[in-house]
Amino acid sequence: MARIDNTVIVKTPPFKIQGIKTKLVPCIHQLVEQETFDCWIEPFMGSGVVAFNIKPKKAILADSNPYIIDFYNSLKNGSIDELMVCNFLEQEGEQLKEQDDAYYYTVRERFNREHNPLDFLFLNRSCFNGMVRFNRNGDFNVPYGHKPERFSKSYITKICNQVKYVKNIIMDNDFTFLCQDFTETINSATSNSIVYCDPPYIGRHVDYFDSWDGNNEVTLHDVLNDASTKFILSTWKQTKFRENEYIPKLWNNYNIKTTEHFYFVGAKESNRNSVIEALIYNF
Ligand SMILES: C[S@@+](CC[C@H](N)C(=O)[O-])C[C@H]1O[C@@H](n2cnc3c(N)ncnc32)[C@H](O)[C@@H]1O
Question: HSE-up of 109 (CA within 13 Å, CB side)?
């Protein structure tokens, strides 16, 4: 990863997702830069921002959301590239400009019928807050994120550059994308791997493809504890209002590194809340 004056430059991938770890990449990078490992494994890849910045020679990136995995596999096998993305977003962006909200919902219905990876990217980059959320039937249900020129020329260029950036990393290295449960991914880890886990935060976010409860957190602890691999877990430690009860219950025997992260609720700067993020690791 490039550094200028000790600042790590973090590249963002084409997808957005709630809980994306763009701001934590420098901390994770610092934690692993002296470590040797054969394979970087992420059982909860989400946007992939961590792996695409660590840029390991070999990576196994998995998620229970089949559409993220399908997009990256399509990029890997060449059925999608940045030029196609550019043409698609220009064409669909024009329709959105003409028909406004109605067109967003047309694409959303089409995606829920056909599951085209380009539609998934279109929705991800035009929905409310770049959220990824599905209803009980497995249908994507995030509303439109209204903006006057949703797919402006510069926005499309930015997305296409992000697609090109991740495509080059996938092509230059040995990256595997798998749609599977986290237990299967962690159980396949060898002793020369580093497993970076970023599950939905227990007690905070449950809006992903799958929900996340106390049983999942205990299972995650047990499989990581039994695996003979190095691991890092992202979780939250505390907010102004409460503490994560699972840290003393499950994770106290490991190393813990914390950082404060500020986020805004609404538009006002005064509505600033902080969360202490924790990186828990066993090396
Ligand atoms: C916090 S997000 C990961 C964000 C990612 N680190 C990033 O920076 O973009 C959690 C991810 O876990 C996935 N997930 C939820 N339950 C899962 C499960 N049982 N097995 C595998 N992945 C799961 C969700 O689909 C979501 O993409």
Answer: 6
